[in-house]
Amino acid sequence: MSEPIVKVSNLRKSYGDVTVLKGVGFSVEQGDLVSIIGPSGCGKSTLLRCLNALETLDSGEIRMAGVTLERSEGERRLDPRFHDLAHELRQRVGMVFQQFNLFPNKTILENVTLAPLVVNKEPREVAEENALRQLEKVGLAGFAKRYPAQLSGGQQQRAAIARALAMNPKVMLYDEPTSALDPMLVDEVLSVMKALDAEGMTQIVVTHEIRFARDASDYIIYMEQGEIVEISDEDEIFSSPKDERTRRFLHRFL
Amino acid sequence: MKRFLLRCLTLVIVWNLSVYSCLQAADQTGDKDSPDLKWAAAVDSNAPFAFYDAHNHLTGFEFEIITGIARHMGREPKFIQNSWDGLIPGLGRGLYDCVICGIEITAEKGQEVLFTDPYYITFEQLVVAKGTPPVGSLAELSGRKIGTLEQTAALRMLEETPNVVVKSYAEEINAYNDVCNGRLYGVLLDFPIAKYYAGPNPALEFTGPPFGKITYGIAVSRSRPELAKQINAALHEMVKSGELRDILSRWGLWTPTMAAALKQQTDPSLPDTEYKAFAAQFEQEGGIIARLKKYFVYWPVILQGCVLTLEISMLSMVLAIVVGFLLALMRVYGPFPLKPIAILYIEIVRGTPLLVQLLILFYGLPYIGIKLTPFLAGMLGLGLNYAAYEAENYRAGLLAIPKGQMEAARALGMTHRQGLVHVVVPQAFRMVLPPVTNDFISLLKDSSLVSAVTLIDLTGAYTRIATQTFDYFGTGLLIAAIYLLIGLPFVRLTGWLEKRLSTDRRTPEQKPSFWLGLGA
Predict the structure, then answer these.
(1) Whose CB has fewer CB within 10 Å in chain B, the N or C terminal residue?
(2) Are B234 and B243 in contact (CB under 8 A)?
(3) Of A93, A99, A149, the CB nearest to B503
(4) What 3-state DSSP class applies to A71?
(5) What is the ipTM of this complex?
(6) Which range marks the domain in which residue B111 is found?
(7) Which of B135, B91, B93 is nearest to B115 (CA)?
(8) Given CB atoms, is B433 within the 8 Å cutoff of chain A?
(9) Are residues A149 and B410, on separate chains, in Cβ contact within 8 Å?
(10) What's the pLDDT tens digit per position in B357-401?
(11) Looking at residue B368, which CATH number applies to its domain?
């Protein structure tokens, strides 16, 4: 088997006295869809944000899409190359936020083309053609000229996915992508993610959608209090959880 | 957007050019071999010394004397306008060669400047409301409110008199008006002023004997005794040829005092035509049409004032926006040394009066060798002052953009700077438009303070016209209306920009108001 596309080892992060991540490690194979679940405050969002260095890790190692971010314990000053590496990594990894974070002053098309134009210096025609293809993929082909405020929540989140895809990421990260959505609109976002999975995209999803996690994930990571409690096959974790804590958490959803 | 940038660029170029020409002008003023005789006076409300007549031509007995002196010296007279308070400091700065503005020769002033021989000798005249019992001496004024002008011999004499309540004014018209209004018991001022501003007014009368003795001299820089000598020589020729007596006679100022001092005949050599012409203005009775006609004569002054006000406001706003933006970035995103510098700048500039800043820039900086032209000083003063307020506007705008916007930009692979330029700043720009418009309107009005550094802007034009027409009311309304009018296009423009940049396109279009743009 080839080298995993994401490999996290011994990742630690704390805010002041509060330790949020207590040495987390896992790996993800190319093309997998992994869900991270767990109660609020368990550190799953922080983990995701550390993965593309929106939060700076305290110590540990993250290998993702060919870039390695590492920091040894007790290293007070960040390696000067850290920010360059993080910048490099973000160009290869897409991120989708709970609140979409679309640019409200730009049309959907401009949202999607901005990074390819600014970061990759793509010619406008190329960027727009690619953007329209991505919008089509998420079912928003007719919405290119609209502004975010003119779209429903589900449409906005799909636009955000198209925006991330326009940078041709190797890995997609989702931070509770459906938590801010009307229940009626959740499925349209999830089906886009399933379609991406079918195309072979590697995806890591922090979610409260247990049903989605079970249906779509290749496996599930259960976290509690800054630790990974269990990594299991999506069926196994529901039928026979290895850990008592997992069983207690999932019990509420069954 | 490109066109907008182009316009900004043009503006910057124009600005640079004007700065350049200002600097050149500053260089030239120090030139001693210039064939010009640069003379300065405060010409607002300054009859009969040197003032603008109803046709907006410079005139006055001092104007004629200095013109004669320049002719005798073989030099071209060149007039430089300054405020009364700024006349002597301006001389020290080398803005001009000499000052002739009814300045009394005193030992105290002799410390600062060199005086020529006197060209006029006079006294203080007390003026009271008609029907007031005669006053024999200053001591009789005990307990009375007496008005005079700032920095005059009369002020000093009144302050030395026990129990007189002294009110000092900037404009003689206001002082005499307050006698008519009953706010003052009387006004003590130099005889020429009393003759011209109180004499024609039937509600006032002269009283008492001539108080004191005042000699007017031309002031030159202490470093230029040759110039003083040349001026004296020219003056003596004018005395000898009878030219001075002719001038003073026509202005109705040939007094026995003068005749005795110059050992010439007591009777005037010519009729007092200039005084008669001036006094005739008071008799002009005017309906609205006549008034408007009177203002119309001044349209060049008003137009020049408008242009200057607009020029200085726009250039200083550009400066304020650029500097303010940099300060805001420094304050919000700057690393250690930049951030406290920005905070310090903002606090100091916001915490001190604009007028003080202007005076320091114009009159203070020369002490450390930096001479700015009035225009440059005014523009820098306003621009750097408003930069502090702009910085706070932009800071508020930058902070109001949700953190998620920068995170999204960074997650897409943009650098922090790219995120600022392409994502955060454009949104902040839209957000701060209303307060920035507000500041521009405010700056437009604060630009009136530049009259403190000798510039004749709209407010300067107001003072000049009001003191020539004796009409503070109508002129004031006219000038206020002009300020209002020139501010409105900018309100409209930003209203339009705001709508164009509106982030939420679902907002129903508001019906535009055509009521002078007040609804924009």
Answers:
(1) N
(2) no
(3) A149
(4) strand
(5) 0.92
(6) 30-115+220-285
(7) B91
(8) no
(9) no
(10) 998 998 888 788 888 888 999 999 999 999 999 999 999 999 999
(11) 1.10.3720.10
